Amino acid sequence: MSEETFILIPGRTSDQGCGISEGKYARRYSDAITAVQMNAQDMERLGLSEGQPVRIRSEHGSVVLPLQAARADELPQGLLFMAYGEYSSRLMGGETHGSGMPTSKGIDVTIEAAEADEVDTGRIA
User: Fold this and answer.
1) pTM
2) Closest residue by Cα to residue 88 from 69, 112, 62, 70
3) CATH number attached to the domain at 4-118
4) What is the pLDDT of residues 25-47, one digit of tens each?
């Protein structure tokens, strides 16, 4: 698979919100912020599978995370979703345009298959 361009939409998830009360190092929170979701049809078209590591690059940085399939009614083709956190922040620039919050929606990224030993997470086993 060669690199393909997508639009990344970071945001909050209910698992992330519930998990934060258990702590940032607890499994529920860690799992929420250490995956990228892709439309299942995009995954099939690109020959990618659930749990496969992928490299996501923006003009500001890159991460390697496991892939999760999202239902078509949850995430349209051409978009990726990640929960806000350490890894999504690596893909955002620092410019806040005076708002105090970096631009975090509609980030142009490329995605490509990666190797398991490249996964960029500190998950708790």
Assistant:
1) 0.82
2) 62
3) 2.40.40.20
4) 667 777 778 889 999 999 999 99
Chain-centroid distance of CA 45 in Å reads 19
The torsion angles phi and psi of 63, rounded to 5 degrees, stand at -140, 155
What is d(CA 68, CA 55) in angstroms, rounded to the nearest whole number?
A: 13
**Is residue 62 classed exposed, middle or buried when 0-12, 13-18 and 19+ CB atoms within 10 A define those classes?**
middle
Condensed to tens digits (0 to 9), the pLDDT of residues 95-122 reads 656 666 666 678 999 999 999 899 886 5
Asked whether 9 and 80 are in contact (CB, 8 A), the reply is yes
CB 109 within 8 A of CB 80: yes
